[in-house]
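Example 3.2
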Amino acid sequence: MNHRYFIKLAFDGTRYHGWQIQKNARTVQQVLGDACSMILREPVKLTGCGRTDTGVHAREFYAHFETARQLAEEERQKLVYQLNSFLESDLAVYDCFPVKPRVHARFSATARTYQYVITRFKDPFQVHYSYYLFGDLDLDMMNQGAVFLLSISDFTSFSKVNTDTRTNICRITYANWEQTGDKLVFTIRADRFLRNMVRAMVGTLLDLGAGKITFDEFRQVVASKNRSDAGESVPACGLFLVKVDYPELDLTEQCSIVADYLEKLRIFSNW
């Protein structure tokens, strides 16, 4: 019987060609998988909570793997420590914990939240983590467009063409622009995202905010289901995956905490 474990991690995507393994490219899945295989001394196949494009960052990301061995809490903590000692500074592992066999890093997630960061002040120290954009923007108009997206289900207009996705139907539950100092941050939460969806969406909302298109034209772009009608994709450097929701995972973690407590209580009672 195999045992399934989740790894919670974060990464700076600047030097990675996204999550998924590719030929002749440095990816998070490849680097982390190789490290896990080396430390556990067995082949480790990681399944991530989703794909990220080249240069996209993740403040919160999950992956799962299976092994025939049951890893005690102490072994899992040691694995986290060893991974962080071995991996470079742009990839960090926060936790490793057991989950039920049916809990899947990708398919059990019920929502994902992304943020896109735009800076209005040219800052050389933010060049890899935001998109510098000069010019006037109507934030209220951009938020009007963001709210409109909540009523839409088909996002073909914001998807890369010729992908292996079966459907372009998504359910957005939150979309909002907020200004903090010199930064504009777009936050969006949905049950799933298409490839390049957020970056194409942000580019089109920026066209709306800059007055390049009207609100009616923005709605026509969405209705056309044609990627060529939407705005240009903004650079990957400003995009962050910030949260992944797992209802089953929350319960699993709570059960794990209780189990650890009971085990410690049992050991103490035997002293």
